[in-house]
Design goal:
Strand content: under 5%
Low-confidence stretches: none
Largest sheet: none
Number of strands: 0
Helix content: over 70%
Order of helices and strands: HHHHHHHHHHHHHHHH
Structural class: mainly alpha
Mean pLDDT: 85
Distance between the termini: 17 Å
Number of helices: 16
Radius of gyration: 19 Å
Shape: globular
Length: 326
């Protein structure tokens, strides 16, 4: 317990989390502080490129391994399965309609890139090393949850018209975050260490500062998404902090079964405990237009994301270290 508290305190006092808190505070008091949308998008693109490239370089050192395949299978299984758990809880303890509950549940099988980025930095500070192939696992977990969400909503029989369905397929398959992550991953894999030597000042030295700016913007956005809290009620709000540890514990179980080290297990737990607020909302707007976006964005961005930054990441790290060692 002492380890968890010390890790949580270290995380809460890190510059990245403090900048997120500053953004939330500025949004709550209605400050005119604002990061232009084009700048915020540029920051997001940088983070995805940097994390993808660094992961590819790490895989180029180790090569294609059984560990990579097992981790990828674990991630895909989590992405397919966790929305089923989330949907059951939402339907049992909230008054959300089936469509909104299904759309919200899909967010908890997919992942948050920024949560993983913040978590990866925390793991490095904690002395836990994770494999570069976990970036590929991250990208693979983006889309299976969307399919589960559509099935839960009955979209297989009452889904969008053919033209909208084609747009959905394109949105899922060519989602910008997936394309950039995997593209940067393969570029890092191909270029290897020589490529890292050339890009290190850009993808490593600037990383922390740009992450702080991005999280400042995320804090501003999260503060504006609190409008859906009234529709969720207390049970719904509690779901936003209970579901992440459930996903993380499921990830830990798979990590133990597949023999992952503590670093990879913690990384998979961070992925399993996160919730998408980019790829899945974009897909749900097309596939399930009747779902209430204020509900699922409040859950994923205004409740689960801050919980993971402040408590979840240190908790998952401490649990992985305590059970697996390292």
């Amino acid at each position: 317990m002492t380890d968890v508290l010390s890790l949580a305190l270290a995380n809460l006092t890190s510059p990245a989390v403090l900048f997120f808190a500053l953004g939330v505070l500025a949004g709550v008091v209605r400050s005119d502080l604002n990061i232009p949308q084009a700048v915020a998008k540029g920051l997001a693109l940088y983070l995805m490129m940097a994390i993808g490239f660094k992961g590819g370089v790490e895989v180029s050192k180790a090569g294609l391994t059984t560990e990579l395949l097992l981790a990828a299978g674990s991630g895909v299984l989590l992405s397919f399965a966790m929305p089923l758990v989330a949907y059951a809880l939402l339907r049992a303890f909230t008054q959300l309609d089936r469509t909104t509950a299904a759309a919200s549940a899909a967010h908890y099988g997919s992942i948050s890139v920024v949560t993983f980025v913040a978590g990866s930095e925390f793991l490095q500070l904690s002395g836990l090393v994770y494999s570069g192939h976990m970036v590929a696992v991250l990208a693979l977990m983006e889309t299976p949850a969307i399919l589960t969400g559509l099935l839960l909503a009955g979209a297989s029989s009452k889904g969008p018209d053919p033209s909208a369905r084609g747009e959905l397929v394109r949105e899922v398959a060519l989602n910008g975050s997936v394309v950039l992550l995997m593209g940067a991953f393969f570029i890092g894999w191909i270029s290897g260490e020589p490529g890292m030597v050339r890009l290190e000042p850009f993808v490593v030295d600037l990383f922390q500062g740009i992450l702080c700016l991005f999280l400042l913007d995320m804090g501003l956005v999260a503060a504006r998404r609190l409008s859906g809290a009234k529709k969720l009620g207390v049970p719904g709000a509690l779901f936003g902090v209970i579901m992440p540890p459930i996903g993380a514990m499921a990830a830990l179980g798979l990590a133990l079964v597949t023999g992952m080290g503590a670093g990879d297990a913690a990384a998979l737990m961070i992925l399993g405990g996160s919730a998408s607020y980019i790829a899945v909302p974009a897909a749900m707007r097309i596939a399930l237009p009747d779902a209430d976006p204020s509900v699922y964005l409040t859950l994923s961005l205004a409740i689960t994301f801050p919980f993971n930054l402040a408590i979840g990441i240190p908790l998952y790290t401490a649990v992985a270290r305590a059970i697996i060692g390292g």
